[in-house]
């Protein structure tokens, strides 16, 4: 199901530890093309939303200074085995990435 | 024959329900864009402007924000950052690199049981303080830690 994302969840007690790895170039817009000398246009993920069983747990806005192939780790208290976690991301060009995991 | 007709009706019925749910606004197709991207804050060229645009100017220094970063980062392209806020009621975490061209790196809003913890990887242009600000109970708090960067990770 995952599209451009890898996710791993581990449950410690009642807290889920979530790790997400997204596949994205995260171009800042300040780098120049070595051949043409032209600026490479910015292309980066700027919105990330994580939901647990449909309820939003994390909503993030990112700038271009998040590293290439972004890594995101967070923890959710009160999560149980079988809970469904969905992460959606969108970049500044409107391209979408998404990932799903069951805790 | 009859079985096929049943399946068909069932299928269209389910699809119809989804369409109604979308129309009623229960399922927003563009839910990722719930909040408008804060262009002013991310475009700010210095810390003061970035903090002002996030409405956290004058945030109080706090020892309850723990920032885990390497003392020396050989490569500024990938600097791991781990933030834990021990301030009760933390609702959002913001990460800045003071000397980046645009200091604001990311902003995280936490809700429904998400703990005040974020781990990610960021780019740093040069040796700088990594500053973290959090919002808790309507107030803003901040802390910072220096990272020495041997090779910058922005532009070039």
In short:
Chain A has 103 residues and is an all-beta fold.
Provide structural commentary.
- The complex is a heterodimer of chains A (103) and B (156).
- Chain A has 103 residues and is mostly beta strands.
- Chain A has one domain (5-102): Immunoglobulins (Immunoglobulin-like, Sandwich).
- Chain A has strands at 5-12, 15-22, 45-52, 55-62, 71-77, 84-91, 96-102.
- In chain A, the strands form two sheets. In chain A, strands 4-3-6-7 form a four-stranded antiparallel β-sheet, with no helix packed on it.
- Chain A is elongated, with a radius of gyration of 16 Å.
- Chain A starts with a strand and ends with a strand.
- Chain B is built from three helices and nine strands.
- Helix content of chain B is 22%, strand content 40%.
- Chain B has two domains: 1-34; 35-151, SoxY domain (Immunoglobulin-like, Sandwich), CATH 2.60.40.2470.
- Chain B has helices at residues 2-23, 39-43, 47-53; strands at residues 60-61, 65-68, 72-75, 79-85, 90-97, 104-110, 114-122, 128-136, 139-151.
- By secondary structure, chain B is α+β, with helices and mostly antiparallel strands.
- In chain B, a hairpin with a 2-residue loop joins strand 8 and strand 9.
- The longest helix of chain B has 22 residues, at 2-23.
- In chain B, the strands form two sheets. In chain B, strands 1, 3, 5, 6, 8 and 9 form a six-stranded mixed β-sheet that branches.
- Strand 5 of chain A pairs antiparallel with strand 7 of chain B, so a sheet runs across the interface.
